[in-house]
Amino acid sequence: MGQLAKPEVGKGPAATLPDVRSMLASAVARHKAGDAAAGTLYRAILSAEPSHSDVLHLLGVTALQTGAAEVASRWLRRALVVDRAQAYYRNSLGEAFRALGRPDKAREQYRLALTLNPAYPEALANLHRQPLPGDDASVLLERFCRLRPAKASELLAVADHRLLSGRLADARTAYRAAVALEPATVQAYVNLGATASREKNHAQAAAAYRRALRLSPDHPGAWNNLASAVWELNDGQGAVRFCRRSVALKPDHPDPYANLGYVQRSQARNGDDFAEAATLCRQALRINPSHVSALNNLGIVNLDLGQLDEAERLFNRTLAAEPKHPDARFNLSLALLKAGRLKEGWDHYEARWETGQLPTVNGQLRAWQGEPLNGATILLHAEQGHGDTLHFVRYAPLVAARGGRVVLAVQPSLKRLVAGMPGVAAVHALTDPFPKPEFHCPLMSLPRLLGTELGTIPGGIPYLYPPAEAIGKWLGQPLPGAGLRVGLVWSGDPRLGLLRANLTDRRRSMSLHDLAPLAEVPDLRFVNLQMGGPATQLAEPPAGMDIHDPMGAITDFADTAALVMRLDLVITVDTSVAHLVGALGKPVWVMSRYDGCWRWLQDRDDTPWYPTMRLFRQTAPGDWTTVIRRVADALRQLAA
C-alpha cells in the first residue's frame, strides 16, 4: 500500500496556509484512525488549493484502501503532474497498478521510486514481491532488511533464497538471525536443519529438526527430515519410526513414503522386505506420479530383484523429471552394466563422483581422457574397496602399453602385491605423499576410456603374482596334508560405522555355522582365510569341521596371495578375496547374494572377468541354505 505523506507547507497563497495546515493535520489524523470523513476533509482542502500534491496523493491512497484502484490511479497521476520528484507517489501508483493486474506497470513505478530514493524500503519490498526473471530477489530483500529493522519472516525469506542458491553459510546466518528475533519460528529451525544436511553435518541437522519438533510436535516435514538425518547417523530404526510418524501426520504427502521405501529396501533381508519397499514407493507415486525420489528408489528395488528392464525404465523416468539427478544416473549405470551393456553403462558410471558417496579427487590433477601419453607419467588410483582395486588394476599394463609411465596409488595392504605388475613403474599407498603426475585416472574409469565391452574384457589371467619373499615365507608354513585344500571366507567387512555398507554386508555375509553342510563332504582340508571380527567364530566351528587357521601370520594381501597359491580351491562370499583369487588364476567359488554385484551380470554361473571363477547365486533373497547345498554337492563331485 501507499504510505501517508508528511504534508509540506508553502504550496498555496500565504493567507490560506494556517487553515490548510490545520485541516490537513486533522484529515491525516482521521485517516490514520480509519475515519471515512478524512476523504471529505481532503476534498475540502483540494477545493481551496487544487494543486496540493500531498492531498492528491492521499486521496489516491484512500481510494486504494477502499479497493477503488482505478480511481486511485487517477488521483495519483494528478499528484505526479504537480510533483514528479516524490518517490512515495511513484510507489503508491505502483500499488494501484498491481491492484489493477498490471504488474509490468507496477514494477516500472517501483523502480522509478527507487531511482528517486534508493533507500526506500517499501518500494524495495514491493519490487521483491513480483520480480522479473532477471531480478535478484534476495538482493532486493537484503537491501530492504538493511534499511529498517527486519521481521523474522523477512529474514526467513532471505535465508531461503540463500539456501536455494547454495550459499549455505549465509543462509545459516540469516536463519539464526530469524530465530534470534522470534525464537518460536519453527520453519527457521527446519531450514537450519536442511542447511546442515547439505553441509553433511547430520548431527547438527538432527538437533535443528528436534528443536523444531519441540515447538511444533505435529510438523510432518520436520519428522520426515529428522528421519533422513538419523539415517545418515546410522540409526535405521529411528529413520523408520520417524518416517512412519510423518506419514501418520500427513498421509497424502509422498516424501515420507519414498524415504521409508528406501530405508526398508536398504534393510531388506528377504523377499517380503523388498516387496514392502516397493509398495511404499508406489504409494508415493500414487500421490505424485513424478516424485523423483520415489521413482529412483523403486528403480533400486527393481535393480535388486533383477528386474532390469523395469529398473532402467524407472531411472530414465527419474532423469526425465530431473536430468541432472546423479543418483539416478549412477543407478542406471548399474542396471546397464548388470545387463551386459557395458559401453552405455561406463558412461553413466562416471556419475558416481557426483553422488557425494566418494571422496573428491584433487582438482589440481589433470584427468586423462584417453589421449596419447607419449611417455608422460599417469597416476592410476584406487577409489573404492580393496576388491574394486584388485578387479580393475588389470588395466595398468594396458595403459603402459599406450605409452604411459604408470604409477599406482592403492590401499596400503595392496601395495606389496601390485608392485610386481608388468608395466608398473612405481606403487604408492594412498596415504603416502608422492610426486605430482602429469595425468591421473581413477581405476574404475579405465574400462570406459579403453572401450571395454562384453566381448573385449581383458580376462587374461593371472595378472597378479605374489612377491618372491611372500612365496618363500608361505612355502615354509605347515598346511593340512592329504585331501583337497579348500580356503573359506564367509563374511565381508561389517563396517559397523557405515550403515549403508553394513546393511549390504549383512546380505552378502553369512555365519561359519551356515557352512556346516560342507563338513559332510569327505576328503577336504579346510583353511581359514577369514579376517576381522567374524573370524572369532572359529572358536566354535560346525560339528565335524576342522579348520586350519594360519591368518595370524598374514600381514597384507601379498601374504594372502602366497597362501592361496598353496590351496586347491577357495569358497567365499562376494568380498575382496574373490577378486584376489580370480586375479591369481586359482579356482574360486563365489556365493553371491540375490541382489548381487553388477559385475557378475545375470543368469550365469561364470564371469568373463575371471575365467577360473564359478558363481553360486541365491535363488531367493536371503536364502543361503540352497546355495550351500549346491556348493556341497559340487564339492562332492570335485572330491570324488
UniProtKB/TrEMBL annotation:
Keyword Glycoprotein recorded: no
Keyword Ribonucleoprotein: no
Keywords: TPR repeat
InterPro entries documented for this protein: TMTC_O-mannosyl-trnsfr, TPR-like_helical_dom_sf, TPR_rpt
One Pfam family recorded for the sequence: TPR_16
Repeat positions for TPR: 87-120, 186-219, 292-325
Protein name stated in the entry: Tetratricopeptide repeat protein
The species this protein was found in: Azospirillum melinis
Taxon lineage: Bacteria, Pseudomonadati, Pseudomonadota, Alphaproteobacteria, Rhodospirillales
